[in-house]
Amino acid sequence: MRNKILILDDDEDILYFCSVVFEGLNFEVISSPHCKDIVEQVERAEPNIILIDNWIPGMSGVRATQVLKSTAHLKDIPVILFSANNDLPNLAEEAGADSYLKKPFDLNELEDLALELLKK
Q1: How far is residue 12's CA from residue 78's CA, in Å, rounded to a whole number?
Q2: Are 54 and 81 in contact (CB under 8 A)?
Q3: Cα-based torsion angle of the residue sequence 31, 52, 43, 21 in order, rounded to the nearest 10 degrees
Q4: Domain extents for the chain?
Q5: What is the Cα–Cα distance from 113 to 102, expressed in whole angstroms?
Q6: Shortest CA distance to 68 belongs to which of 12, 8, 11, 120?
């Protein structure tokens, strides 16, 4: 069975490059440009891992991650928070994210981080 990743970012270039990376790893890629209805989006997508931008329409990535991590049947899905924010380590901790990645990021770094989280 293929792994699925849900990528939440309103930057079309980032969605494109991340999609290429994960499709190359044989992932099914689902993407969204907003965090509205975050629980419903995740329930519909049934991802194995979530990549979420902190600055995204709907609600912040921090808030969306907090919502997911406080939802019993979704809390174990690994979440990677990514942002250009200098305070990203603290934001990720506040959110309860499993990991974080500072923008701009290296695509190999993203790939390695996602695969590592899936092994856990």
Answers
A1: 23
A2: yes
A3: 50
A4: 4-119
A5: 12
A6: 8
- Tell me which residue of 43, 10, 59, 50 sits closest to 27, measured CA to CA: 50
Place of tokens 């709907």: 58
Q: How many CB atoms lie within 10 A of CB 37?
A: 12
**pLDDT one-digit tens code per residue, 99-120:** 999 988 888 999 999 999 998 7
CATH number given to 4-119: 3.40.50.2300
pLDDT digits (tens, 9 = 90+) for 45-91: 999 999 999 998 888 999 999 999 999 999 999 999 999 889 999 99
Q: Which two tokens stand for residue 2?
A: 């293929």
pTM over 0.90: yes
For helices 107-119 and 12-24, give the axis angle rounded to 10 degrees: 60
> Would residue 47 be called left, alpha or beta, if left means φ above 0 and alpha means ψ between -120 and 50 degrees?
beta
Provide the 3-class DSSP secondary structure of residue 43: helix
- N residues, the chain: 120
